Every structure is written in structure tokens, then in C-alpha cells.
Amino acid sequence: MGMGAFGDPRPKRSLNAEKQGLFSNASGWKSLITFTVLALAWISGFASRLFAVIRFESIIHEFDPWFNYRSTAYMVQHGFYNFLNWFDERAWYPLGRIVGGTVYPGLMITSGSIHYILHSLNIPVNIRDICVFLAPVFSGLTSISTYFLTKEIWSPGAGLFAACFIAIVPGYISRSVAGSYDNEGIAIFALQITYFLWVRSVKTGSIFWASLTALSYFYMVSAWGGYVFIINLIPLHVFALLLMGRYSSRLFTSYTTFYILGLIMSMQIPFVGFQPIRTSEHMAASGVFALMMAISFLKYVQTILTKAEMRYFYMIAVLGAGGVVFLAVVLLTYAGVIAPWSGRFYSLWDTGYAKIHIPIIASVSEHQPTTWFSFFFDLHILVTTFPVGLWYCIKNINDERVFIVLYAVSAVYFAGVMVRLMLTLTPVVCVLSGIAFSHLLGLYLKEEETMSTPDSDSETDDGSNEKSSRNLYDKAGKLRRMRHEQIKESDGLGSNVRGLIVMAMLMMLMMFAVHCTWVTGNAYSSPSIVLASYGQDGTRQILDDFREAYYWLSQNTHNDARVMSWWDYGYQIAGMANRTTLVDNNTWNNSHIALVGKAMSSNESEAYKIMTSLDVDYVLVIFGGVIGYSGDDINKFLWMVRIAEGEHPKDIRESDYFTERGEFRVDSEGTPTLLNCLMYKLSYYRFGELRMDYRSTPGFDRTRNVVIGNKNFDLTYLEEAYTTEHWLVRIYRVKKPDEFNRPRIPLSDRKIKRSKIFISKKTNKRKKGSIKNKPTVVKGKKPTKTA
Amino acid sequence: MTGLRVALVALVFLCGSSLAAPDVISPSLRVKQADRLVDLASQLVKINTQMVFENTGAEAARYVILVVDEAHTASMAYINAILVEPNKGGVKPMKLVETTVKGQERSGHRFYRVDLKTPLSTGKTVTITLETIHSHLLEPFPKEISQKEKQLIKYTGSHYIFSPYLVVKQKTTVNLSARNVESYTKLKPVSQADQSLNYGPYENIPAFSHDAMVIHCENNTPFLTVRNLQRAIEVSHWGNIAIEETVDLEHTGAILKGSFSRFEFQRESGSGLSSVKSFKTILPASATDAYYRDDIGNISTSNMRVMSDAVELNLRPRFPLFGGWKTHYVIGYNVPSYEYLYNSGDNYILKIRFIDHIFDDMIVDDAVTRIILPEGCTNIKLKAPYAINRLPDTLHFTYLDTKGRPVVVLHKTNLIEHHIQDVEISYTFPRLLMLQEPLLLIIALFLLFVLVIIYVRLDFSINKDEASENRLRIAGLVDKVLSHQLKRMTAYDAYDDQLNKLRQIKDLNSFNSSLKSVTSDLKAETQAIADHQTKLKSDGPELAEKVSELQKLDKALKEVLAQQQALYVEKLVPGKINRTAFLEVDGPLVKKKSDIREKISVVVKSLQH
């Protein structure tokens, strides 16, 4: 139904509908095919994202989505303004976190308003289900907006191709499966619709479209930090157009309108605040705005001055303006008004930067550079066809194709730097591949069509759309019957070759669809909080240890209990167990994380000092040694050490955890520092006694395939509070100072040694002094001899 | 007749007096023989006392008084009295009326009056069984145990049956769940046999005697308590009843002391004996679509077995429940409504269990059952099998509701399995209201379509776009021109065909007759195009130009055809021309014709764009 609002230009349709039936009505067919293809793209995109729901259940996945879900639930419960003012005292204990001001609220507002609308219609859908299914639903919107973008840039046929590609391409599915309730799920839609509106507004030069662009940019800003990409790409586009001498009043209108409105609106998001005028990332947009103004001024002056004067004036003005802007930016940066680029931003230019300076960024796997494998894995055939589309766009360049070219080039770069930014590359790859496929198929199907029977209006969508894109009013198919319009043998290829090419391309598309389904099903549809293992007979065993532990925490610890764990699990603990955490996935405070890292990598008594100073009640560690789960805390342990070392270089040294040969090992050759640190002890407490089966030695770690080095130890300062069925999550209670080392003796059993204590024999009656150990002298009596 | 009336009056009077005044414990009644069975084998204490009452006085006794002592009243979840009539074959439940007794108003004991159907005359006996079930009466002792230890409980009662009458002879059997008895009070004669203790017989114990009996023994049966049960029953007249229970469960046995060791729990058989790993919930036989979940999703460890008379759910909480540990879950299922909903006309009766089975020997501390009736129900009445607190009705809104569904909210505390009984809710529901929801949908969709139609058909733009309207009009005209052109060309094709025929068959008559219609067609179409051309002239001069060009070409084509016709009719058919000469004349004409056609198609194509 969302599509009904758009659709084809109406007049044509109604005009034709009057005279002719549906079957002879080409534009009717065209819109029918468009609707059908888009609807199918929506449905298949939605359906292929449901693997996780069908295999497991309707559940929020992974880590960040749990925070988003928790905030959404909070907003739904307490209202929007309370959400904006929300100070979360359950995170970052004892600091807390101002959630309302440090979050992109677009996601929560989107699902919150869907929830509100449904509930006002008395449709009692749980907010969790809305959150779970939000990303798949928005993927349909994404494919529609991709259709419009591609249609603006190339043709409706290419648009349909692009829409189908984006609906199922794994690079986008990876971030938008059901349950992956994250900003990216709606942000890609916002990105595409913003680009579409921008291209449209550049094309038309209308304030209306430019304002819509700004509005959708506002939505994007509210939804994802990736909005910086838009606010740099659009100025880049404008700048490139200016360089190419393609200045026009349309460009001027659209950019100035967009920039001003977008700037003001983006500053309404509390988390963004004054950043758009104060940070370097946003300066390109203002610079281009100033340039635009200068050029339009020059154009105006041009109408007054003569040509010779103009050239002279032009040189000075351009140089002067450029210099002034540059100097201003430099000076403002120097003076501290404009903040320099942030660390994450630097790591985009220098892939080694994060590893050296910000281990916390480097420790996240999705911040690693992308491998070739993952390009192919995520994009499959599109990775080879999108340069073709790019080439077509460059060959037939116009204002809006400049945009897509820039988009493609920059996105390819960023995707190469960070795995995570594959996401921004994927839409443009789909657009360009759509163009490539549509163009190629158009080339090869079109001739076929003329050779086939005359009433071949009911072609495949690609063919007829391609044809109609060229020949929009070509609906009088009967005209072709005229004898004098006999087909002339086409030059070029024969039908066999054409058929082969078309077949090959369809084959590739089919392989693409198969690949997408396979990748989605196998790689991107695991909720990661529920694990499944398959037995030899194909039976599935579900390992639900994470939820077991979190639910235990939520039910059986007191409400204010503070749980220390590595930051990966912070959001999950807050979301599922509803307990206070010390650090979480927000990672805004590196020193706090380092403190937790230090506690984990110190020995028990040192750790105890840190834990008591942080009021820790429980410690939670993930241990995969029993079932062979590789993502456990021991495998992450070196990052904890590194981060701790960054802040406490005197106490923690990474080299202490490596053997002399530079290996990190937990068996008997491991370093004593490692074998006695808190993380080791908590992971392996009583594991040394555990035998997997009768043949294996006790204490065999299945993740690292070694027998652990330190087996028989006891915990002094902590006690095991709960361990899940497969030992995956282990929770320890931190003892209070009076509990450890001093076994409690019941009052009746307490013996107080009094031997050395001097007890005065003075009483109220006898106040005479006495000398200690004085021999008693008995007077006037002979000692009697007892027999 | 009058006698009956007098008797009635007397009865009413009697009843009235009995309500107003406290009852009297008749000194002439005594318990001849009493057997008591105290069952401590589960977390509940089930006391079953069979008493043979004998009337030793002169006056017939109309009722007997039963009593529950102070220590047992607070925990009492269920009480029942049964008249045992072995010779008449069987047992008969009796009505218990709570009452007060003269001289005992201050005491904390609870007295019940059982009215005898036939007054007990002198020397006669009557056998009555009093059954009471108590929750939370067994006290874990010690209160805290470690994971390795067994759970011990302490029961404090009385050696003697607490009776308002003299008990001549009495015996007590205590059933335990395990052989291991730490200690028990030894009021002789007493003996221990396997899993039971036998006290008595004791003789001639006066009324209201109490002698503390303490039993301290092992009991590892699950000590589970439902702290709070929220049961929602949603009735749909479309054939389904959805039931959902939200359960707050707690292990109320001895609290776990110290740490929990997964290693010991998995490897050592004697570890965590009193913990609860799973339990069985029995659902109605027709239950389908069962789900078992909590706040964070499905609890993946449960099994469902469909049996002939019930559906058995083997529920395993996410974690084993040790003493003091809690959990919380939701269980839900559907049952078909024909098993529970009865109607006669517009009057309906819903017979459904107030609570349902959760686990064996369950204790429910607090239960709230919300029965959601269809929208539009009126005249709701409740009939309960036991005293249930009915809270004010509320409204519930769900799919397609407008004014909300009435909800009957029922509340009761301290429930056990014996409370699994049907409540009856009667209400009136006009059947026509069934159509409300489909109609609502139909109307909503209809309105949507109407809106779309209005939006598509009407122009809502603020400014009138002259240019585009113009363009549209022109496009329309061009369209018409093109269609006429198409027809004209078909007419020409026919013309051509006829000429060809003529050339071959040389039949002038048929040619002339068929030509007539063709020429008339041509004339009409040309005229129509000319009309449109004049209209076009004002709006789109360029296109009009093209159309006029079309007309010119058309004229030329017509001329060529006329020439050809002349050639055929005048020269060829009469045979005035030889073949080579004919071809010489005809060839250029054909060529010219195709040239013109080519040109026409070019113009047509340009018009199409």
C-alpha cells in the first residue's frame, strides 16, 4: 500500500484507460509490472530475513539491538520526553549514562510510533515483535527507494533490477535480518530515500524536493551516525558539478535549501547538537555552501561586467574566497571552535591508526579491513557487474550520474577500510548493477522482441520496461502490423548468440539468488544468543545458556546488584537480566573499561580491591571450554590486557601473559601471571576436575584443545553463584569482606582465650591494691602436712 | 398442609436463631472412634480424620461441630467433610457452615457446623470424615542448607485429635516421604514402620486436648509455590478460547546456602536433591498451540505429550530451582469453545476452571483470573463453586474492538489442586454482534478504496497547470488522430488487396462493389482526421503541421492508388496493354506507393513521441 502513493504519472494511465482495455494498454502493463515486481521484492526481502525467526524464535539478536530494544521499551513505557531525559543509572556504574542525549533516537521513535498507531487501533502487538520485524519491513521500503533512485538516474527497468538486488543482497541482509534491531536497519532506507530526493531535487531544482531531501536527511540524522556520509557526499557532488562547470540555478536552489534546512534540523537531535557547525566532519558542507554562494555571486557579477574584466575578477575572487575559507577553518580548528576529526574518523584514512592508538576500536571485529572474500561473499555477482554500470554512467554522464559515480567511488573506498561499511557500499552496488543488467538485457532482449510475434507486449518485465523506458508512448502495438514496417534484418549478432548471452545472464542472476539465500540462511541468521548444534543424526540441540544465565540473574539476585563483565555483554545484561553493569557496548569511557580489564587480568586479591572499590556484587564470564565455543572471554582476553595496559601500564603488561616464545597459552606452559589472573580462575574454576568422557584427561579445554595449566585452585574472594548447563556462562558472587578467610563460628562454639589477659580482681568491695604474682604469706599458722 | 406450614415456619425460625446465636457443643455427643491420617509426603499437609460420633444424651442431635485448631487455621487451604455410610454404599459430601461456639468466641480455632440430615438419636452413631489440606505448614529445618545436604522439614501438630467432644479411642498415622526421620516426639504407644509413624491408640481424651507433636524428617519432594498466578481466559464466539497463565514460581523449601556448584550438580548424584529441575503441567485434552516462554523469549526446554485424556507438558525452567530461587514464565494454549461454552439463544454459559493444574501438590498463594468475554456481552453473572472474590469488571481492548470487551476479574488466595473446579459465567450476547467485526473490516477497506478512487479521479492541486492540461488534451487528440490513421491504413491495405485481386482475377464487378466500402471508409477517416487537425491547430501548431503533412501524404497515396486503379481498370482488365508496358507503368507506381507509406510511418512515429 505504501507504493500506491507513488506510482506512475497518472494522466497517461487514465487517458489510455478510457480508450483501450487493460491488455492493449502498455502503461497499464508497465505500472502493473512495476507494482508486482516491487511488491515481490518487498515480500521476498521480508521473507528471506525470517530465517532466524523460523529456526529459532522472534527474539532480539546480538548485542546492540538489546540496548535499542531496551530503550524502545523504556520509551514506550515512559513516553518520549522521559526517554529524552533518561539517565540510565543501570549502566556504567557508578557513572551512569545519559541515554537520551547519547543516542540516535530515530530507531526508537520509529518503532515507538508504529507501536502507538497499532495500539490506538487496538491491535495489541508487543513492542518486541515490532522491534524484531522492523528491519525486514524497512528492507522493503529500502528496495522501493532504491527503485526510485535508480529510476531517477537511469531507467525504471534498471530501478526494478536494483530493487530486486537490494531486497536480497547479503551485504544488506547482514544488518537487517529479523531481530537485528539496529540503526542500520532503518538507516539504509533513509540513506536511499535521501539520495533519491537529492537527485530529484537536483534534476528539478525545486525547493519542494530540496526540502523533502532535508527532511529525510533529518530522519537519517536521527537514525544513524552514518549521516556524516550524506553530509559529505552531497557537498562532494555539488563540488564536482561545480568543477565540471555544471553550475545551474537548479543546483543552487537545491543545495542551499537542503543545506540550511538540513543543518538546522540535524541540530535538533540532542546527540548531534552543535556538532554540525563545530566538527571537522561537517565542514565540507559549509565550505561548499560558501563556495556556492561565491559562485552565484560571480555569475551575477558576470551579467554586469565585460568578459575581460570578468576573467580578472574571477581569478581573484576564486583564489581569495578559497583562501579565506581554508584559513577560517584552520584558524577555527586551531582555536578549538571546530573540533578536529575523531579517532574513528582517522581510522578511516589510516587502517593502522586504531590498532596503535585506540585498541578498543580495533578490538571490534567489524572495524577490521575488509577481505576480498567478504566482498564476494556479501555481493556475489554484483561485485563484478557494478563496474559495468559505473562505466555506463560515466559514459553517459549527466548531473545525477555524477552523484552515483561519486557515491560508488567513495563507498568502495570505505568498504575496503572497514567491514562494517560494506553496508554503505551495498546500495550503490545494487543500483549500478541494476543499471548494468538492465542495459545489457535491454540490448539483447530488444532485438529478440522485434523478431518475435507482434503482440509481444507481455514480455518479461526487464524487456518491456527497457523498451518502454526508451519509447514511453509506444503503445500502439498494432501499428507494427503494417506491411511497410517489415523487419529489417538487424546488423550485429544473431539470435543464437543473443540467446546464449541472455541465458548466461539469467544463469548468473539465478546463482545470485541461490547464493543470497544460502548466505542469509547460514551466515547471517543466527541470533547469537541462542546457539544450535547439530547431532550426527541431524537432530538439533539448542544451547540456551546465555538466556539461562541472564534470567537467573534477573530472578535470583537483588534488584540493585552490580554485575561486572567484559563490555561485550553489558547491553545483554541490562536488557535481559535488568541488572546494573559497569561497562557496556557503548564504550564511551575507555578508562572505565580499562579498569574492568585490569580487574580481569590481575590476580584475585588485586582484582578484589578493584571490585570492592566499584561495588561489584557479581562477576560474569563467558567460558566456552566445555562445548568448544570460540567467542569466549579467554579468547578475548588479550584485548582486555591491552586495553588495561593502555591505562595502567605499570600494573599490567601484555608481555606477562605471553610465554617466552611469544605464545598465548593456557596450558601448563602458560605464564604464571596468566594462570593466576582473575579471568583464568573464573573461567576454569573446578574445570580441572571435569572429564568430558572416560578417555579424556580432566580439564581438557575443547576450545583451545589443551589441558589447562592450573587445575586445583580455590577462590578466596569469590564464590560460584551460578554456572549454566554447558558452562558457557559462569557467574560468581563477590564475597563481602567479612565472609572470606574467616569461617563463621557459631556463637556457642566461640572460645575466647583469656590466659594472657590480666583480669583485675578488684571489686567494689575490695579496693585494695595488689601486687601481681606476689607470693601469698599466711601468718600465724603452720602449714599443716596432709597425709 | 397446615402442619407443613408450621414446620416451615419452625425451620425458618430455627435457622434464624442458629444464625444469630452461637452454636452449642452438646455434652451428650462424643467421638467413639477416631482415625487420623497425617500425610507429610509432599509439601502439603493433608489431614484426614475419620470420626464416629455417638449420641449418649436423651435429645437427638441435629448437628455436630467440627473444629480446626489455631495452629492449623492460617495455613488451611481446603476443608471438606464427608458423611461415610458404609451400609448405604459410599460417601457423601456434607455442607460445612462456619460458625461460632459458645464459650469459645475468643479462641483462634475455627468451628464448623455440619447439619445432619436425620437427627442423631440416642445411642446412634454417625461417621464423618474431615479432610483439611494445609499449605506452608511444613517448615524447612534447618532453614538453609548447602547444595550437598538433604532437605529436612519440621511438622508441629498435636498427638491428639483436636475435637470439641470427648474422644474415646483414637489413632494417628503419619505418612512421610522418606525413611530418614531425624526425631519425633514419642508419646507412647508409638511405632515407626517404614515411611510412617503410628501414634496411639489413646483413650478417653477430653475435648480440646492438645499435646505437641513434633516430627523432624527428610523431605526432598519439590517445595514449589506459585506466588502469583495471573490467568487470562479470552473467549471468542468464533470457536476458540485462549488461555494464558503467568506464573511466578518460587522454591519455598530450605534456602540454598553458600555457592552453587555446577560441577557437583552434574557429576554427583546426591547433589541438589531438593532442587527442582522440571515439573509436569497437565492441560486439558483439547489444548493446542501451547507455548512456554518468559520475558526474554521461548524457554526451549519443554516437551509436550498428547495423551487421550490430557495434554502433558514437561516444563523445565531455564535453571534448576534451588531453595529460595525464583522464576517467572508464561504458558498459554487454545481450547475449542464448544467444550466450555453453552448457549440457548442469546444466553450463554461459560463453564471453565478457575485455576488449572500447574504441578502436582501445587500451592498457589494468590490467583487472579481474568475472563475476557466477547464485546457486547451484558448481564454477566458468576456462579462459583467456592468463595471467590470478584473484583470490579474492567474492559479489555484487542483486535477490532470499539467499546472494549468486558472482563470478569476473580481473585482468591491460598489455592491448591482441590480448587481446580469450574466457575460458571452466564451472560447475554446478541448473536448479530458477531457480524460487527467483519463489517468493520469491510467498511474500512471500502472507505480506503473510495478514498483512493477519489484521490485518483480528482485533481487536488492548488494551481491549475495549464500547460500540462494542454499537453494532455493534445496527447488525446494525437491519439485519436493516430487511431484514425491506423484505420485508414487498414482501409488502404484492403484497397491494395482488392487491386491485387483485380490484377489476378480481373473481375471488375466484385472489385467495384468492394471498393465502394473501402472508399467510404477512407473518406470517413480522412474527414475525422481533418476535424482533429483543425482542433489541434489552436493548441499544438507543431503537431497540426505534422498532421497536415500526414494528410498531404495521404492525398498523394490516394492519388497513386487512383492512378493504379485507373491503369488496372482501364488498361489491364480490358487487355489494352501488354505485360512489359504494364509492368513499366505499374512498377514505379508500386515503388511510389511504398515510398509514401514509408514517409507516412515516419510521420506517425514522430507523432507517437
From TrEMBL, chain A:
Keywords, alphabetical: Endoplasmic reticulum, Glycoprotein, Glycosyltransferase, Magnesium, Manganese, Membrane, Metal-binding, Transferase, Transmembrane, Transmembrane helix
TM annotation in the entry: 32-54, 96-118, 130-148, 154-173, 185-201, 221-244, 256-277, 283-301, 313-339, 372-394, 401-419, 425-445, 500-521
EC number in record: 2.4.99.18
Annotated compartments: Endoplasmic reticulum membrane
An example molecular function term from Gene Ontology annotations: metal ion binding
Membrane topology label: Multi-pass membrane protein
Reaction catalyzed: a di-trans,poly-cis-dolichyl diphosphooligosaccharide + L-asparaginyl-[protein] = N(4)-(oligosaccharide-(1->4)-N-acetyl-beta-D-glucosaminyl-(1->4)-N-acetyl-beta-D-glucosaminyl)-L-asparaginyl-[protein] + a di-trans,poly-cis-dolichyl diphosphate + H(+)
Gene Ontology biological-process entries: post-translational protein modification; protein N-linked glycosylation via asparagine
Residue ranges annotated for the STT3/PglB/AglB core domain, each copy included: 562-619
Gene3D superfamilies membership: 3.40.50.12610
Pathway(s) served: Protein modification; protein glycosylation
Feature: compositional bias, Basic residues: 762-771
Annotated region described as Disordered, given as residue ranges: 451-470, 761-787
GO cellular component entries: oligosaccharyltransferase complex
Pfam families: STT3 (PF02516), STT3-PglB_core (PF21436)
Cofactor requirements of the protein: Mn(2+); Mg(2+)
Top EC class for this record: transferase
Residue intervals of the Oligosaccharyl transferase STT3 N-terminal domain: 33-432
Family to which this protein belongs: Belongs to the STT3 family.
Annotated protein name in UniProt: dolichyl-diphosphooligosaccharide--protein glycotransferase
Species for this entry: Thrips palmi (Melon thrips)
TrEMBL record, chain B:
Signal peptide location: 1-20
Major site of localization recorded for this protein: endoplasmic reticulum
Pfam families, per the entry: DNA_repr_REX1B, Ribophorin_I
Transmembrane portions of the chain: 439-458
Membrane-related topology note: Single-pass type I membrane protein
The protein's annotated pathway: Protein modification; protein glycosylation
A biological process from GO: protein N-linked glycosylation via asparagine
GO cellular component: oligosaccharyltransferase complex
Highest taxon, organism lineage: Eukaryota
Record flagged with keyword Lyase: no
InterPro entries in the cross-refs: REX1-B, Ribophorin_I
Keyword Metal-binding included in the entry's annotation: no
Compartment(s): Endoplasmic reticulum membrane
Subunit comment: Component of the oligosaccharyltransferase (OST) complex.
Stated role: Subunit of the oligosaccharyl transferase (OST) complex that catalyzes the initial transfer of a defined glycan (Glc(3)Man(9)GlcNAc(2) in eukaryotes) from the lipid carrier dolichol-pyrophosphate to an asparagine residue within an Asn-X-Ser/Thr consensus motif in nascent polypeptide chains, the first step in protein N-glycosylation. N-glycosylation occurs cotranslationally and the complex associates with the Sec61 complex at the channel-forming translocon complex that mediates protein translocation across the endoplasmic reticulum (ER). All subunits are required for a maximal enzyme activity.
Family label: Belongs to the OST1 family.
Protein name listed in UniProt: Dolichyl-diphosphooligosaccharide--protein glycosyltransferase subunit 1
Originating organism: Thrips palmi (Melon thrips)
UniProt gene name: LOC117653188
